[in-house]
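Entry for the shared binder. Reason: the reviewer on the internal report wants the predicted structure included alongside the sequence.
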Amino acid sequence: MTKYLLLMVLGAGIYIGMTYQDEIEDVLDKAPMEEVQDGIEGIAEALENGTDEVKEKLKDL
């Protein structure tokens, strides 16, 4: 009986996590970290293209 209860709670947790994933990420403020990561990737691409773009990217951050 305990196994079934644990499986039911686990299933409910997975369902809630999948259904409300965006809301959970908003509460945890993951968006700012993604913006920083995008900025770092932009700087890496700019290094490949030239130093003028690096200066522009650093000003944006």
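Summary line for the report: The CA atoms of residues 37 and 50 lie 20 Å apart.
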